[in-house]
């Protein structure tokens, strides 16, 4: 019976990160995986991260409220940015999670409508829009 080969595709709702671990820590993780506590290294690391986030949940909630951050996924499209520009307003975008500037937004429109951009997490936008907003990112 031939093995099944699947093409690796990152999840659309996640971002890959790279970490360096000491050999002893890595060995301990591998031992826990072999003993069946976790299905793989990634499962262990995700669980450890979630546990730490749960531990600091109240502090995160307070910071989100204090900083007035949009939490989760926030999309910005051409219509919303045109409305802000036409009203003479500049958006000050603050997102904890994923900020998406839709593909229909031109670099010129982004510069005309976005005064500041602060993203804790990930920003998805065309390379041209990212370059146009480079001086507004914090």
What does this structure look like?
This protein has six helices and three strands. The chain is α/β, with parallel strands linked by helices. The protein has two domains: 23-55, no CATH class; 60-136, no CATH class. The protein has a three-stranded parallel β-sheet, with helices on one face. Helix 4 packs across helix 5. Residues 1-10 have low confidence and may be disordered. This is CopG family transcriptional regulator.
- By DSSP (H or I, 4+ residues per run), the number of helices equals 6
First-last Cα distance: 53 Å
- Structural class designation: alpha/beta
| Rg, Cα atoms, Å | 20 Å
Q: Would you report the number of β strands?
A: 3
Count of spatially separate domains: 2
As a percent range, the share of helical residues equals: 40-55%
Instruction: Identify low-pLDDT runs.
Output: 1-10
Bulk shape: elongated
Strand content: 15-25%
Q: What's the main sheet like?
A: 3 strands, parallel
Order of helices and strands: HHHEHEHEH
Pfam families: RHH_8 (PF17723)
GO biological process, one term: regulation of DNA-templated transcription
Protein name: CopG family transcriptional regulator
InterPro entries: Arc_rbn_hlx_hlx, RHH_8, Ribbon_hlx_hlx
